Amino acid sequence: MTSTPDLVIRGGTVADGKGGDLFEADVAISGGRISEVGNVTGKGKEEIDARGKLVTPGFVDVHTHYDGQVTWSQDITPSSQNGVTTAIMGNCGVGFAPCRPEDHLRLIQLMEGVEDIPEPVLSAGIPWAWESFPDYMDWLSKRSFDMDVGAQLPHAALRVYVMGERGARRDPSTPDDNKAMAALAGDAVKAGALGFSTSRTLNHRTSTGDFTPTLKAGEDELTAIAAAMHAQGRSVLQFVLDLSTINEDLPMMLRVAENTKIPVSFSITQNDKAPQRWRQTLDTIHEASMRGLSITAQIAARPVGLMLGLELSRNPFQTHPSYQAIAHLPLAERLAQLRQPEVRKAILSEHATATDDPLFFRPNYDKMYLLGNPPDYEQPPENTLGAQARRQGKQPEELAYDAMLTDEGRGMLYVPFLNYADGNLDAVGEMLRHANSVPGLSDGGAHCGIICDASFPTYLLTHWTRDRSRGEKLSIPFVVAAQSRKTALSVGLYDRGVIAPGFKADVNVIDYDRLHLHPPKVHYDLPVGGRRLMQQVDGYDATIVSGMVTQRGGKATGARPGKLVRGAQGSKPQLDAAAS
Question: What predicted TM-score, i.e. pTM, was given to this entire model?
């Protein structure tokens, strides 16, 4: 090397993202790119002592919902606090462009209902300085962040923009509608959209209870959009399906992929109603990949679980009349009421009733846990509140009630409702190891008051490579490659996810032994004091984006080198270990 590197990371244990063995090396960075890996003799302008630390590529999170947050904040937390250096938003068919002024509230209500981001937060935070998707991209391109962000074209926004009320009420599209949507989709790829997302699940509803506009979109509609996008450049079709209709919808989506040659990416989880269906689905996509389709399953790193509590969006007693009578009170006043013996007795004497809320489950205390500190997402069945209550000779409702009153009314209950049908994470491990899968579904930026999964990247490292005691573990090289190189490849970002000369200098320096997730807590730091669940993370010594340190010792440095990623980046590589 002839010039002085901007930064040298000294003596770290490198997991380079390719899936091979760990090795010790220095990593030199110049001009936002990795310039040398090995024994770097020259001193850098800045140096990081990484001896005894794990050095990885920055993580690429392909399933987030920061579409609103990127418009009001430059810090893409909590993902940027979990080693993520590139986040892909616009998933599940929801987002904020294209959008006519008269539909602002409609798209906000859809995002609020589907992703539990409160309407007041979105209404106050989103500036609506755009109408078309290219306008949205142009506006975002002028902003800087603590990580890179990539966007997908959301189907619901596109459908409502072209079809108006007919689109919102899920009418079939006409040939003219399809032509108009296809033209706008092609324009979106030209503007830098990494893909197109849609949803076909009954669980995705507006905050007023209406189903998502994309629920029953026809194959002709999807084919027209996907074909137009793929004709303009590399893009991905991301979708969410329902278990109840997967036998019809998955073959249709695969036909769309086969007819348009577009790569596809979709979510697979284990469902209690059909706990082996995930294996059939993976077999189906493996067969499709053998036919030449580019297809990726997004896998959650742990159970998808609801956090329930008095400070959160839902709790087990929310349909009990005696609780509903005080539900409107501020937390402190509600807590005082709940501590009254007569109120406690009244609430516990009542029963939960069914609602049309897709994320309110009539409480099953044999599936409900106390998460603990440190949080334990793979607890045995004997830890459930139901099992504890039987041992203590109590009703499980009593344990749930008292648990929520702890910590001044901030106690939380944990209900794993996907990926935990067997009472362990063996199925998740098998899904993660599948050749066609990548880690996904963190939903960063979403589910502010009920789910706290943006910490998936950290959990993959802590639980799956180090802490798991109830089954097989995964190796550090495998996990790092899966959530850096493999995720990057799945969305066409060929320039990142590897520690090697020429690649984008997105890097984590991790104190692996100290890497640790704290229990979720509620923070009121969104616009208008909006609430969100966050988890403190220890152990990230440094996170580096484009060669600049954005996080140091768990604190933001204020550096914001992150930009909007416009379209596929770099050249498609030869097949490497991480991609195979």
Answer: 0.96
